Fold this protein.
Amino acid sequence: VQMSSDDYVHTGGWINWSHNAAFGNTITISSRSGSFLLAFLTLYVTIAGSRFWLIIAFLVHQEIANREENDGMHIQQQAILRNSGAPMSAAVSLARIAFRWRGVAKRPLLRSLPLIILALSSLGAFRAASILTAEVTKAAGNETLIKSPNCSYWDPSSADPLNQGGFRTKIASDALAAASYSRACYGSDSIASAQCGAFMERRINWNGTTEVPCPFSSRLCFSSPSAVYQMDTGQLDSHLHLGLNAHEEDRVQYRRLTTCAPINATDFLSRGASPSGGTYYNYSLGHIQGFYPDNLSFIYNDRIISEDISYQLTAFSPDVHASWIPEIQSIPPEEADITIAFITANSVHFDVRNTDLIFGATNPSQITQDGSDITVYRPDNPVGVLGCVDQHQICNPSTSQCSGLSQVPDLLQAARGLNLNPKQDAAARYIYNAIFYNNIYWIIGPRGAAALRASESVYQNFQHELSNTQWIIEVQGWFNASLARLQQAMVEIATGPPSHLAGINYTRPGSNPQNSFEEDLCNTQIIRSTGKHQNFSVLGIAIIIAFSTFFIWLSFVIGTATGWVQRWIHKGEDRRLQWLLDDSLQLQRMAYVGAGEGRWHGNPEAIPITNEPTLLKTSLYLPANQGARDVNEQSQTPKDG
């Protein structure tokens, strides 16, 4: 059963070294569990907000309490501050008494307005805090860690590219997946897609330029301004760009440099008549044993033009065709991997004249279509030859040392002089295994003409208008696909192969006794959550829990603690007593005592109760004007205070 990388996401605590140890401390849980945790934190903050209001109400009550005679509005304000359990109910009650005391008390609105603003500010602050609780997930980001028991890399030494069906299936599948990802997620014409959010970076950025020398011998290079194109990733951080979670001192940098150029093969081309008709075009750019006779690299018979066949692309590389020694490069073989592509347009006609060095079509031709004569353009050359060289580099960011540019097989050897620590060396090996089948050949060779963007705009062998630098568009697409394949390979090592194919062996990192840190990298690959998991900042949770718990605790002890201090310093005891007596149960007791109902006991700090089971009259609860009159008319004397 093929599993996705989401199935191997580590749940639990870990440190994301994109930040420091404090800010990077992260908990990853399932989205369902995350919803419950987020709901709990929001509720806890809401509770803390209501308890925070009790602290504010206590402090204000004590501030305005005094021994002097006060009007009824002041007393009611104190009662509201003492008994309102939430800031909203306090604000509403304070507004109501301000309205009710108009014309009776002095400046009722001005006296209540500061308290109303204070209550609403407290409410707003904690409502905002409860909403911002979600920031504990945003602060942690959507980066998750892979932890798979199947972590392993494709062992290059076990593969025979020419004889193993499993190898070919794997290479073709990888090339197609990389091309699909690059089309969806790279370039200005890419579209938003769910798959684009899976890797550490949506895309790996690079710079392109035509201001570079031709990588091939001068007699093979064109002299036009757009005859060479180089693509350079710059230094890619193993953590920030490729997702290997590590301290800064344990990271390495990887650079990919690819230079491509159309090849002027005129001096290496011979023609001959074919016994079956047509003309042979023989290209001698280094003998490829087992493919073509003599010293030939490619043979094309132009008879195919009449056979209604569209584009074809045939690629060769010394990496695969080990017997081929290319006779076109000026860079030493150990410094680069070379790919040569032979592109044939065959029966394709061009709607518009084109001057591209590979897809050039400037020869007009008349054909009849739907009974009408139309002008089309035929390719200038039956075969376009395009060469690319890939170079790789490892750098130690701690010492600013870099290896020389090299081909993939020599990359680790080239990096030996960089003074890498064991963890850096393990990271370099991890990247090496990810890029082993990543050069241009492995992107275009398995796909043939499907690797050409030009073929996507061909209808019934009529080519829609192409750019006059179409070959650059093609190599840009190939380079993007190779970088997409790098991203995919990094994750595939961590998760393990999606399926096992015959003839392909996988090796678990760490089997190399020279570096025990390689196995640790199996649990360091970062991907981005696609929604199945959620991250929480440990620091954020700790701050929320700590502050909320503090306010809740303080709301329960502030009255008692303040009372102890007031008794100890013999100051403010009357304010403490007012706070106690303004409690709703104490106010109720005093009302019943004043009405002569029941015998009560208990000090002001305790809940008042009657001395014995007593049935109390509820007729005290009358309209305020009648109740006051009725109570005043009673002549009973309170029996117990």
The chain is about 35% helix and 15% strand. Residues 204-269+372-482 form one domain.
